[in-house]
Amino acid sequence: MPAKQLLGVAGILGFLVTWELIPRLGLIDARYLPPASEVIAALIVDFGLTAFWVSVGETMKAWFLGLVIAVALAVLLGFIIGSSSFLRKATNSTVEFLRPIPSVALIPLAVLLFGVKIESSLMLITYAAFWQVLIQVLYGVADVDMVANNTAKTYGLGRMARVRYVVFPTALPYLMTGVRLAATVALVLAITAELVIGSPGLGREIALAQSGGAISGMYALVLATGLIGVLINILMRFIEKKTLSWHSSVRSEVIV
Predict the structure, then answer these.
(1) What local confidence, expressed as pLDDT, does residue 254 receive?
(2) What predicted TM-score, i.e. pTM, was given to this entire model?
């Protein structure tokens, strides 16, 4: 096993040992922070429950749908706005005004419009993930080599052909970075929406476990969300490397 992976495993084991000792030594009351062994045991029990996997499915459905909608809208608008200096200047102030607004601030509006249904979660997820992708696409389009673009124009390539063969390959690494960041943000907002709004999913189950006094079960569900986050990150990095296998940054990683 490579040294980097060994250090990662050692870090995880060290964290779990520390977590186990803190309540055992009485540094924190075990009623509020159960030992890691109890939480892991509760998580293993959850793995055998149908209700747990139904909740995971609800969370992943909201995550996936929200991410797809956000990416589709961001790519479309990003290429349209980024390809026009007029539109970039005209929308810059609007983008800079809307982008910093926290998605959680839209929770009252989402509940007012959609209640506690999945649509409320989708609204928050889409809004948060959209900006991650849009900004990266705008940067990518702005990074297009004007010499290459003008050369393509000289050789008779139309606007759509230039977008396909010049603009898109340049913007693709930026786009994949935006999608990877958006995937993590989408999961955070999916769990947050379920916690606060009460829409179906792991977040709601965490809130129910907390209110019912099942503290070990609550921590087990939190741990499950963390594992899902790790798996999503691994998946997105794998997709990014496969998509950008031709790019110099990915080739240099492989060589190293």
Answers:
(1) 43
(2) 0.87
